[in-house]
Give the backbone structure.
Amino acid sequence: MLSSVQGSWCLATGPGTCNLNIEGTPVINEKTYRYSEVWTGINIFDHACNLIGYLEKPVKNVAIYSELPWTVVITEIQNNDRNFAFCYAGTCYDNGFTYNSFDEDGSGTIECLRAFDCDNELRTAKQERSSGYHTWNESALG
């Protein structure tokens, strides 16, 4: 069973749609009072908000493994910037995130959520794993 990086925000969607959740922490420098945002983790949820993948300390151009048959690749992320981009199964998603801020016991969290098309790939991947059947493309090896 996967556990998320932190308590995560997700909105249920219809079948065939997954959610990418980026979590961050607001930081205020006590000397300069400069506000910054540090991105601490990424969670991938299925349409019913079940956690199916996560990554701590996200960086640009990293692949996130999950229960989906392909990886989610983060193509744009940097601290102090809310411009995010990622790709999944040949489709890329730029921005379009919904933002939410939480403050629990003086510990703030910023969460950014973006739905993406994962078709019936998750269900198919789970069925293939449970049946022992896997599709392999040897030409991809070069």
